[in-house]
Write the structure tokens for this entry.
Amino acid sequence: MDSEDIVLELMKTHIYAYHEGHGNIVDFGGWAMPVWYEGIIAEHHAVRNGVGVFDTSHMGRAVAKGPDVEKFVNRVVTNDVSRLEPMQGLYALMLRPHAGIVDDLITYKMGGDEFFIVYNAANREKDFDWLKENSGGFDVELTDVSDGMAMIAVQGPEAVETLQMITEEDVSLVERFSIAKITVSGLRCMAARTGYTGEDGFEVFVLDSPVADPGKALKVWNALVEAGAVPCGLGARDSLRMEAGLNLYGSDIGETTNPLEARLRWAVKFKKEGGFIGMEALRKAREEGVKRSQVGIQMVGRGLPRQHYEILDGDGEKALGEVTSGGLAPTLGYGIAIGYVPVEYSKVGTPVMIRVRKRLVEGKIVKSHPFYDDSVYGWKRVRT
């Protein structure tokens, strides 16, 4: 079977017609997605220093409605959605009863009886099934809307100005982790002030744009490109999120990881009314103390770390763990990694070694949320 036959069998997003004509397409978890257009490094820098646009339509999207919707959502996620005002959102986790992470997600309170939930592409079916499985006893209706609306991320310090060029409403008024109804290129959309790059920007949802009839989605995408946004693929998305210290589900977090190990305690509210699935197991883990911790690693010697590379102590004698994400940080000009080590080795400044193929390369534990100076790069720079 040749590459053309493989692509024919893959799932396609609303923006596929553009990718087919301009991008280098790969199999990404069963989806035909562009890994790059002009090049990963160039696209990475375009987002850090200007504005880029990503097709994120492969991600999962669900609507939950009903009289019990707030109680239901609060039960299935770790954060406290009862604190949200209408059109506000928050980052949260869904856990198994043993506290392993089902997925990480963002959920928005659209109104008194409606929530909009966005989760990872690789978990679309699993997450929706998990939501349905745990909706018993709640007066709530769940709808998978993933294929009915395109999702496009506009990211970078120039994202506001670029989106504003094709939008009727004042998008600068949309606050971080809030969502608003807007009109883009004459089409009904929603824009959330969120993203997966560490930069300021929006995730734009093109309403009433079924994947089988992609005209509306392509109209918005093309308008953004014409306004100056650089098309970006999966490669730049990964390097950008890694520099920002953002977790990739299936690599940095998963069902064998709990939020305390992954340094996501801030997204867990133990005292909220009604608790959450997995709370007792996670509380027990907190009381006993975690044995390992996620860390960021800066390479000191020459060599790029990759997923599954072994992490050793500073003498290169004791195995500590393995890299879960790694590679070049284009903004910084050196290699970085995310991984797990015993808690006693997690202090910033601790020397480590990473086995890069057959040789050991020196590294050190650093602050990784984000790896870069957030007074110079990232959404905090934009807001100040």
